[in-house]
Design the sequence.
């Protein structure tokens, strides 16, 4: 199993790369599953972030107000190029999809019912759900390697899907436990040799 | 077009932007209340349809606000609604990202990175289950979701091909 975690050097990423990356994520994500696509492109294809870094920034993105993937774009853009990087990533993510959606909307408001539109949509959405699930499974195979990690994931799953608690409550309960468990001890602190 | 509507759009979506903790789906009920029941910018049926369109279309589904703005005040309305929805939350995230990067080597950040990852895996699987319940009403759709998940986990096939195939199956009336 080869994973992005091997290369820990910060990759060289330009503003243009940022915009194109998020444009790609946006364009392939019809039918939903935007965060799954973001993981596929950022972690597997470009290797800008490791799985762990990606998941943490996704949680950060979900905790803050605003659309999740928009926040993720702002985070990744800021990480590489500050405010202008955030703007580039955000522009890549939204401009072309905005144009597409507006033309779809105008078509809809004019013609209302496109024949077959709804049935094609049903198929695409069902596959989109599978994409989201596969992201959870893939990331899980990578991350859940110790009993504590499995217990944390299971508790989060039960809190959200079974008990239907709000996100903040699940995190307020589990994040302190997870952080305390993984608090770095002095001896296994590895420093990145790059400046 | 009058400035009053534009002001209403800015206030409505600007505040929804800052309230949308956990993503736009959490403020959809409030958006519906204001746009349909409050301001009568569009009908119930239209709101449901543009929701489906914005879910399926590429890009963030929160771009739905551009269609609400379009219906409320034309092209300028679409532009203003989009800016009002995306700018405030993006500024907050920018500030938070800067702080997060500044503490790159702090112990609490390393602990957060390791400790939050498994929790996020659980949350992802949970949203997968919740949207399966919401989106798949028939066995054929559930099976398609299951098959997609299996294919994507076990092979390296580009998800785009699977989506296209699923669209064709849907178009043929095989997915209900």
Sequence:
């Amino acid at each position: 199993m080869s994973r992005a975690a091997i290369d820990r050097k910060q990759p060289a990423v330009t503003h243009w790369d940022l915009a194109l990356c998020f444009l790609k994520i946006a364009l392939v994500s019809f039918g939903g599953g935007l965060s799954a696509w973001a993981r596929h492109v950022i972690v597997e294809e470009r290797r800008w972030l490791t799985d762990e870094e990606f998941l943490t920034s996704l949680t950060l993105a979900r905790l803050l107000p605003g659309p999740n993937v928009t926040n993720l774009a702002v985070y990744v853009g800021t990480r590489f190029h500050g405010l202008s990087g955030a703007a580039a990533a955000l522009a890549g993510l939204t401009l072309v999809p905005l144009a597409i959606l507006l033309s779809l909307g105008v078509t809809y408001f004019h013609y209302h019912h496109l024949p077959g539109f709804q049935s094609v949509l049903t198929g695409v959405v069902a596959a989109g759900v599978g994409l989201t699930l596969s992201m959870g499974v893939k990331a899980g195979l990578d991350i859940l390697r110790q009993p504590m990690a499995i217990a944390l994931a299971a508790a989060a799953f039960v809190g959200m899907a079974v008990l239907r608690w709000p996100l903040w409550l699940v995190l307020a309960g589990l994040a302190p436990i997870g952080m305390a468990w993984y608090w770095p001890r002095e001896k296994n602190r590895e420093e990145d040799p790059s400046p | 077009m009058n400035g009053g509507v534009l002001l209403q759009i800015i206030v409505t979506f600007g505040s929804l932007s800052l309230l949308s903790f956990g993503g736009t789906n959490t403020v959809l009920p409030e958006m519906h209340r204001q746009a349909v029941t409050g301001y009568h910018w569009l009908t119930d049926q239209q709101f449901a349809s543009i929701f489906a369109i914005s879910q399926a279309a590429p890009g963030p589904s929160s771009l739905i606000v551009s269609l609400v703005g379009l219906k409320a005040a034309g092209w300028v309305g679409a532009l203003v609604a989009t800016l009002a929805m995306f700018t405030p939350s993006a500024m907050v995230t920018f500030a938070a990202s800067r702080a997060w990067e500044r503490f790159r080597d702090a112990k609490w950040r390393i602990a957060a990175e390791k400790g939050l990852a498994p929790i996020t895996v659980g949350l992802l699987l949970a949203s997968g289950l919740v949207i399966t319940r919401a989106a798949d009403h028939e066995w054929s759709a559930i099976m398609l979701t299951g098959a997609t998940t299996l294919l994507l986990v076990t092979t390296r096939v580009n998800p785009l091909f699977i989506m296209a195939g699923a669209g064709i199956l849907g178009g043929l009336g095989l997915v209900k």
